[in-house]
Amino acid sequence: MELAYGHPKSLKPIQTKYCPGCGHGVIHRLICEVIDELGLQERSIITNPVGCSIWADLYFDFDSVQPPHGRTPAAATGVKRMLPDHLVVCYQGDGDLAAIGTAEIIHAANRGEKFTTIFVNNAIYGMTGGQMAPTTLVGQKATTAPNGRDPGEAGMGYPIRVCELLGQLEGTKYLARGAVNNAVNVRKTKQYIKKAFEAQMRGEGFTMVEILSQCPTNWGLEPGAAVEWLEKNLIPFYQLGEIKDKLDGAAAPVKEAGK
Amino acid sequence: MAEEKRLMKGNEAIGEAAIRAGCRAYFGYPITPQNELTAYMARHMLDLKRTFIQAESEVSAINMVFGAASTGARSMTSSSSPGISLKQEGISYACGADVPCVIVNVARSGPGLGGISPSQGDYFQSTRGGGHGDYYTFVLAPKSVQEAADLTYLAFDLADKWRVPVLILADGLIGQMMEGVVFPKERDPSSLPAKPWATGNQYKTHRPINHVTSLNLMPLELEAQNNRRFERYAEIAKSEVRYEEMNVDKAELILVAYGSSSRISLGAIQAAKALGIELGLFRPISLWPFPAKRMAELAAKGKRFLVVEMSKGQMVEDVRLAVNGKSPVDFYGRCGGVIPTEEEVLAEARRVLGK
Ligand SMILES: Cc1ncc(C[n+]2csc(CCOP(=O)(O)OP(=O)(O)O)c2C)c(N)n1
Ligand code: SF4
Ligand SMILES: [Mg+2]
């Protein structure tokens, strides 16, 4: 009988330190499932972010590099240029990618660096305890936006839609946005990741999968309520689906994601 | 590439030496007075099908080095003082993760934007780690175009051998001047040391996975990790000290200077000789590890020192530490991009000696 579901080989069989209901663990699993399906475990390198998933190298059972906060796309550039036949996964949170590392991601994407960015958008700084992120919604509360993000009087700016921003750059070939709020979206997100990894291994340009992810702890919600909050607030603002697909490889488009 | 002699600018000689040392990846960002180096690497690395990237900033350039070097590839970046400040975060990470790499600082005057004239004001930053945390990097200071090439070639070997970043501390004079330079032949890639700690190519050997990281949240483990690195530093201090000395036995006063200021000091020494005054020269080549032991020996023999720098006095602190009060240490320096003249240095030496 065929095994329908099991623990991915590339993911170590240990319990993660993530909070209950956190999206990072699910995303780790999806990455590892795809790596296993593509048979790339011993040819994969993850460049870790600085954020809650700083723990990634504890869990992924393949090589890793830990660059400074936000500099991951620059380090991944160095890794991938030296090892073009490897799968390089650049894992980043929203603070890491869209605040401190804005220059690095824009220019890596614009050069068409041939690694895949997994961009975990939980609309908050998880690790440092719930500060406002560049992706925090208007009105959303954070320790540094106690009355909610206020682009007006408080001058806190607006949430950044990273896929749409990077979509303008010619170096970007595949940009998709998924979510890990329910089984349908988890499966879709996995398909996006697979399509991006396959494109990377064919040597096409920059690929990124943004993933809307729950941070119950810093949203101040129970895990179940966090899923509902994501569906009611994040998904309407951050449109799910394949935002840009200019891949040459004839991969079929992934069907539109659910809510 | 066989051994050959050429007439070249210091900046270009550093580039050529790096290529011959087996540098596979170079990442840079424009800044005067080192632009010829970045341009040289662009021309030649691309021709050789090696990696050259003009990064979006010095911050990115050093992190590209960090990534490339973490795969075991010989990697380099270069900049000048303000850009080197930006690289400090990445250098600290490279030290913490034991990633060998080469960083060239063709220094200019500061602080801040300062000026583009040569300076030795980055001595503290270079020799005290420069970024956050407990660490050192090798610091090699060339006095000529030839030595810039030689030390760059050596830097890659030292970096690999000790798993530490190596900083070449030149200045705008060394970078811009043209001199004859003999290059060694190119390193055979198969002769380079194995790097079993590097990431990538696991599928070839099925070795255990490798993590290149400076992270460790367990204080006792991190302390042990740092202690092991400091044991290596102690070995380095024993075996990798480099300096040059001249006429120190006869000298009534020893000038202590590195890089460009050592050449000016040499002129002053020759002028003094014509007046019947015996001056010596002590020239640290490795600024870290600093040749403290030899300086202490000279001090114990009753030698006194005049430290000459293109700064407000930075290396003089290391000289005073080495001499430890056993003999007088004087200082003469110009800063802001002003280059001291031989006459000024001679006058100061005569003042110190009362002659
Ligand atoms: C240079 C630097 N600045 C600040 C920090 C502190 N810091 C650690 S993680 C983090 C933000 C992480 O947020 P995000 O990228 O959204 O990841 P998450 O934890 O939400 O997954 C910050 C600011 C740091 N480690 N380094
Ligand atoms: S703080 Fe948020 S992002 Fe971090 S582990 Fe907890 S739930 Fe996940
Ligand atoms: Mg976040």
Topology diagram in text:
The complex is a heterodimer of chains A (259) and B (355).
Chain A: H1 24-37, E1 44-47, H2 56-59, E2 63-65, H3 72-82, E3 87-93, H4 94-100, H5 102-110, E4 116-121, H6 162-167, E5 172-179, H7 183-202, E6 206-212, H8 216-219, H9 223-237, E7 241-245
Parallel strand pairs in A: 1-2, 1-3, 3-4, 4-6, 5-6
Antiparallel strand pairs in A: 5-7
Helix pairs in contact in A: 1-7, 4-5
Chain B: E1 4-9, H1 10-20, E2 25-28, H2 35-47, E3 51-54, H3 58-70, E4 75-79, H4 81-96, E5 101-107, H5 123-127, E6 138-140, H6 145-162, E7 165-171, H7 172-176, E8 178-183, H8 202-205, E9 211-212, H9 219-239, E10 243-246, E11 253-256, H10 259-274, E12 279-284, E13 286-288, H11 292-300, E14 305-309, H12 315-323, E15 329-333, H13 342-353
Parallel strand pairs in B: 2-3, 2-4, 4-5, 5-7, 6-7, 11-12, 11-14, 14-15
Antiparallel strand pairs in B: 1-8, 6-13, 10-12
Residues 18-19, 22, 24, 52, 122, 126-127, 215-218 of chain A line the site of iron/sulfur cluster.
Plain-language structure description:
The complex is a heterodimer of chains A (259) and B (355). Chain A has nine helices and seven strands; from the N terminus they run H-E-H-E-H-E-H-H-E-H-E-H-E-H-H-E. Chain A has 259 residues and is an alpha/beta fold. Chain A has a domain at 24-120 and 159-212 and 235-245: Rossmann fold (3-Layer(aba) Sandwich). Chain A has a seven-stranded mixed β-sheet with strand order 2-1-3-4-6-5-7, sandwiched between helices. Chain B has 355 residues and is an alpha/beta fold. Chain B folds into two domains: 6-239, 3-Layer(aba) Sandwich (Rossmann fold); 244-353, Rossmann fold, CATH 3.40.50.920. Chain B has 13 helices and 15 strands. Chain B has a seven-stranded mixed β-sheet, with helices on both faces. In chain B, strands 10-12-11-14-15 form a five-stranded mixed β-sheet, with helices on both faces. Chain B is globular, with a radius of gyration of 21 Å. The model of chain B has no long low-confidence stretch (mean pLDDT 98). The A-B interface holds A 42-43, 45, 47-48, 54, 57, 61-68, 71, 74-83, 86, 103-104, 106-107, 111 and B 24-25, 27, 51, 53, 55-57, 59-61, 63-73, 75, 89-90, 93, 97, 199-203, 206, 209-215. Magnesium ion binds at residues 51, 93-95, 122, 124-126, 133 of chain A. Magnesium ion is lined by residues 51, 93-95, 122, 124-126, 133 of chain A.
